[in-house]
Amino acid sequence: MVHEKKNRLTLALFCIYLLVLVWSILFKFHVSLSDIQADRAINLIPFQDSVSVSGLRSMEILVNILVFIPFGTYMGILTFNRPFWTKVLLIFGTSLVLEIVQYICSIGRTDITDLLNNTLGGMLGIVIYRALHKILKTRAAKVVNLFSMMAIILVPLFIALYLSITGIRIRL
Length: 172
Hints:
Elements: H1 2-27, E1 39-43, H2 56-78, H3 84-104, E2 107-111, H4 112-136, H5 140-166
Parallel strand pairs: 1-2
Helix pairs in contact: 1-2, 1-5, 2-3, 2-4, 3-4
């Protein structure tokens, strides 16, 4: 019974994470569809333009990796007994679908580099969860869930603080 509740909590937290992930990748944190700039571009050359003068592209690469680490940790919990490569394929497939939707809907640049970095981030998440599980055993999922719940509370607070400091207004 306790294991089933833990899995339900993990699944609920994973769903919340997926909603934020889709919002960030497809809608770039906009709340109005009219604010999204139409951009249908595709880059099939890995790491082309990865080093930019401003460093923004390098930051984007790091963010893509970091944003998919939780995906890997959730895969570690929810598909614990599955082989490593099955989990990686789920992460890769999800990232691929998001990149294709971006292209079809003209809401972002479809980029092979993003696909590779998203997958790398997910793989790091799987490895991190494996390490946590070796150290904490059955408590590893509880620790991940606790961090996830804290993030669900703290991230919106940080976004609100950022918006209030910068004076950015959200239009609905």
